[in-house]
Design a protein that fits this description.
Blueprint (H helix, E strand, L loop, with lengths): L3 H15 L4 E6 L22 E5 L2 E6 L2 E6 L4 E6 L14 E7 L4 E6 L7 E5 L6 H4 L10 H9 L5 H6 L9 H11 L11 H23 L4 H11 L18 E4 L4 E4 L1 H4 L8 H7 L1
Antiparallel strand pairs: 1-6, 2-3, 3-4, 4-8, 5-7, 6-7, 9-10
């Protein structure tokens, strides 16, 4: 799922390519993508893109009083065409979710890989009132060490949950939370309220370090290179079985129904491998 660092990089590219352009039209490849009916997308034709920003894992495109709010879900991403493909998109059979065409005949596509289609688009004159945005906690890159420490000491949740629960902290997901916990040398299943203030400040410093490293690696990249560059920056997430870049231990994994987390047993759990119930059943 696209997270804070890559979405910030995408915001910069959309700003460079499209801010100041007027919307020529929006073609929705599947009606399930559109979550609102008022105002109609057809009414936005001719509106200028005055700004683009991020809130949590959402992209917000401001169009003269109306905001398009996009959530790219698990497998969504963006593609820019200097010249829009000819003809409107047909019924949704491939990865295309929707296409925005602009007055310079360029196009911005929202795509989604896989069979599970969950990309969502809202159009609203008051985006802050949309439930998908109203529920969000403070931005992960904006919360200071004191507020982060209070957040940790005020919950019994695991550290992995604190970092990924969007109502507590917005913008970080499965991938970058693995990187933050590895950098902090903390178990994903450690209790947040067990850290104490010093431990929470240490975790906050790791969060800042990882976000800064990600920004350095992604800033300035075109849209079609951001996701690939993200993967290259990840040190533990998605690298089960590879050597930890810090200590050389094999990176381990805990699998869930649809996702998994990766960690280093030596760096993060004192040499102990966390129980992976799915793999444990296979090995019986």
């Amino acid at each position: 799922m696209p997270e804070l660092p890559e979405l910030d990089a995408a915001v910069a590219q959309i700003d460079r390519l499209l801010v100041g352009r007027r919307l020529h039209g929006v073609d929705v490849a599947a009606i399930s993508v559109l979550k609102t009916a008022d105002p109609p997308l057809a009414d936005l034709t001719g509106h200028e893109l005055t700004g683009v920003r991020r809130r949590g894992k959402h992209l917000l495109l401001d169009l003269e009083g109306v905001t398009l709010v996009m959530h790219l879900a698990l497998a969504g991403w963006l593609r820019h065409h200097a010249e829009a493909p000819s003809g409107p998109p047909g019924p949704r059979k491939g990865p295309l979710a929707l296409r925005m065409v602009w007055d310079d005949d360029s196009a911005l596509d929202v795509t989604e890989q896989g069979t599970r289609k969950a990309v969502a688009l809202w159009a609203s004159t008051t985006p802050e009132d949309l439930e998908t945005l109203a529920r969000l906690g403070p931005e992960a890159d904006a919360v200071d060490a004191d507020d982060f420490a209070r957040l940790c000491t005020g919950t019994h949740s695991h550290l992995k949950t604190v970092l990924t629960d969007q109502t507590l902290l917005a913008g970080i997901g499965n991938a970058w939370s693995d990187e933050v916990l590895h950098t902090a040398r903390l178990s994903p299943f450690a209790a947040a309220d067990g850290l104490g203030r010093e431990g929470a400040v240490h975790l906050h410093a790791a969060l800042r370090e990882v976000l800064e490293r990600a920004a350095q690696g992604l800033t300035g990249l075109p849209l079609d290179r951001i996701k690939r560059a993200k993967k290259a920056l990840l040190r533990v997430h998605g690298r089960a079985g590879e050597e930890c870049p810090v200590c050389g231990t094999r990176i381990a994994e805990v699998s869930f129904a649809e996702r998994s987390l990766q960690y280093c047993p030596t760096c993060q759990t004192g040499g102990r491998r966390l129980s992976d119930r799915r793999m444990d059943r296979l090995l019986r």
